[in-house]
Amino acid sequence: MPHRKVKDLARLIVALFFDDTCMIIMDVFLNEKNNFIIRADVLADELHLSSKQVNKALNKLQKDMILDSYESAAKRGENLGKGVTYWFNHRLFIDAVKYKLQKMQDLLNSNVGEDSFDGTLYVCPKCQRTSNALDAQKHIDMETFEFICPRCQIPLQEPAPTEKEEDQSLEFQEKQRDFHALIDPISQMLQDIDELGRAVDEDQ
């Protein structure tokens, strides 16, 4: 059974990077009465949501390695057919968060370094909506690590760099602090979970 800190981390990750439907679904999985496992068809009935809506959220959560799944028996009318059971694989989840957190940090260091994190606006080539680097990272694709337009669901483009000014350097520092304010709580929770794991190993 995952520790409370692991469940808290899962709720935080989903709240930061996923939509409301995913948040509702994760609350169900993290409820101990469900033993962190539930069939997709049962989940749709329990939440009074359409199967399409539930399956879309489940596929996204699985794609980002927050949930795992396997085929199982599912009752459909009076027939017994194949269904899919999803479960919260907390060990896979922790490893995935560590990996993606490092990739996000690498992305910040390589593409948005101190000399370029200057208020540059990322532009959607379709709707022309602009986002600064801080806003853009809130809509990052956790698989490709590209910034995605929340409206058009396509990668944002970075315009050619403009001449740097002194006030832009100050703006970079502020945005970098905001970025770490978002990421640091996740890093701290991972450290706490690692310490719990080491304590358990020492007791055995």
Secondary structure layout:
Layout: H1 4-17, H2 20-29, E1 37-39, H3 40-47, H4 51-63, E2 68-76, E3 79-87, H5 90-111, E4 121-123, E5 130-132, H6 133-137, H7 166-203
Antiparallel strand pairs: 1-3, 2-3, 4-5
What's the short version?
It comes from Blattamonas nauphoetae. This protein is α+β, with helices and mostly antiparallel strands and 204 residues long.
Which shape, going by the Cα principal axes?
globular
Summarize the helix and strand pattern as letters.
HHEHHEEHEEHH
* Radius of gyration of CA atoms, rounded to a whole number: 20 Å
Strand percentage: 5-15%
Q: Give the low-confidence spans.
A: 112-118, 200-204
Sheet with the most strands?
A: 3 strands, antiparallel
Mean pLDDT over all positions? 79
Q: What is the CATH architecture annotation of the largest domain?
A: 2-Layer Sandwich
* Distance separating the two termini: 17 Å
As for the number of domains, it is 2
Q: Mind telling me the CATH superfamily name of the largest domain?
A: Zinc/RING finger domain, C3HC4 (zinc finger)
Oligomeric composition of the shown chains:
single chain
- What order do the strands of the largest sheet run in, or round the barrel if closed? 1-3-2
Determine the fraction of residues in helical runs and give it as a percent range: 40-55%
CATH topology of the largest domain: Herpes Virus-1
How many β-strand stretches?
Answer: 5
Class based on secondary structure composition and strand pairing: alpha+beta
User: What is the CATH top level name of the largest domain?
Assistant: Alpha Beta
